[in-house]
Design brief:
Blueprint lengths: L1 H22 L4 H31 L5 H20 L3 H7 L5 H25 L3 H26 L1 H27 L2
Helix pairs in contact: 1-2, 1-5, 1-6, 1-7, 2-5, 2-6, 3-5, 3-7, 5-6, 6-7
Length: 182
């Protein structure tokens, strides 16, 4: 359950951006390109974080739960902050989806996945399963976010991003409380 919630939380930025792009008139082929980009970036960045984070966390086993909590709280807090400030994404969306924009949005929405990937060893979640689920779920939710964005409006995207931040903070708190109780 923790893995699914983590993957959902990390995918919310990409879902919200996809919804926003759809609201601004992105065509289905562009939405597909965006979803593939988001899925690949989320997978790659979370994998990079997990591989690098595993080495770091072996040296900090006594405080790994604090590291996981801190990173998830920072990422979740950043997502909540971003839910209220979409100016850059709105400007980018109005010009269409070109390769430089795809790459920029891919990196921007996956930085959170890098930080979350660092927490995967502390959470004792399988790296391949976790990062794969994050990538696939991000792809699926990006397509669904675009579909919903066309129908439900810009407010839906902000709510999803806000919810994603809250979910990540909740996972961080759960990890901290579970470790402190053992």
């Amino acid at each position: 359950m923790t893995l699914l919630l983590l993957a959902l939380g990390v995918a919310m930025d990409a879902t919200a951006v996809s919804g926003g792009m759809a609201i601004r008139g992105a065509r289905p082929p562009d939405i597909l390109k965006l979803a593939v980009t988001f899925g690949l970036f989320q997978f790659g960045m979370s994998l990079a974080g997990a591989l690098g984070g595993k080495v770091i966390l072996t040296h900090f086993a006594a405080v790994d739960h604090w590291i996981a909590f801190g990173l998830l709280a920072l990422v979740g807090g950043h997502m909540i902050y971003e839910a209220f400030s979409h100016d850059e994404e709105e400007r980018a969306a109005s010009t269409g989806i070109k390769l430089p924009m795809l790459m920029t949005l891919g990196v921007a929405t996956s930085i959170d996945a890098l930080a979350v990937g660092v927490t995967l060893p502390a959470l004792e979640l399988g790296v391949v399963l976790s990062t794969g689920l994050i990538g696939v779920l991000t792809f699926v939710l990006s397509v669904l976010g675009a579909w919903a964005g066309k129908r439900l409006g810009e407010r839906f995207g902000t709510s999803i991003e806000l919810l994603g931040g809250v979910v990540l903070i909740g996972i961080g708190l759960k990890t901290l409380v579970e470790h402190l109780n053992h």
